[in-house]
Target: Glyoxalase
Amino acid sequence: MGFHSKPTTYVGHVRLKVENLQRSLQYYQEIIGFDILEQTSSSAKLTTDGKTSILSLEQPENVIPKQGRTTGLYHFALLLPEKTDLANIVVHFTEKGIRFGSSDHLVSEALYLHDPDGNEIEIYIDRDPSEWSWNGEEVAMTVDPLDFDRLLKNRVPGKSWEGLPEGTLMGHVHLHVSELEKTEEFYVKGLGFDVVNRYGSQALFLSTGKYHHHIGVNTWNGVGAPKPPENGVGMESYTLLLPNEEAFNKTITNLRKIEATVIEEDGKHIVYDPSGNRIELVF
Model:
């Protein structure tokens, strides 16, 4: 659909900090269905196609468990190619005895679960964009019960879960932030996103290219929530893929106009949103 390819700006990768790398690798391979692309004693890059990584895990030194009521990751979301894939993973989770939540968001159908460290994962499929309802610049989204009977009719009889399909993408990230005004300025004026949905005064959903959202932000951990500790479990960073060098340079200029600091670190360009969420900018 073009929502996760050029010329759209989108989230390409998420890096997580975990308490026990081996425990997490077992979970992400056996339960979620990733393969390992690269691995060291303290980190691993995970893949679904054997070529690119959309999720990395790292075990920091002196790591401490996930801290509550901070900014940082609310969830990262894996976008599956087909409704059949979502139906198959429902059966897989059920057979493995994995507890999960679910929701119909009008634009998508989603499952929710937590990894061994408490990091939340969304696994979803998009409805066809022709079914999305727009009111001006805002897309209608809701939290309705998922119709499992209808979903499971898409399962291919006799076909078992074989891991995440090759076309799985990092669909979006949803973040806890400390406030919304400066956050909106950062993502809209700095990074070039559009606000496509406002959830009262507590959450914003942002995208490029008229997607329902590439980024979600909320204050559900409290206005003024502090940053998590550096060695705490949670999100280390996420990567934004920009369309080309021109868009990259324009974004850097716009970030500096709003007085955001862009850091060059080991050949990477890093910026932090107003709540301390770390973003790597690439093209």
The mean pLDDT is 97. Helices lie at 21-32, 83-96, 148-152, 181-190, 245-257. Residues 83-96 form the longest helix (14 residues). The chain has one domain: 10-282.
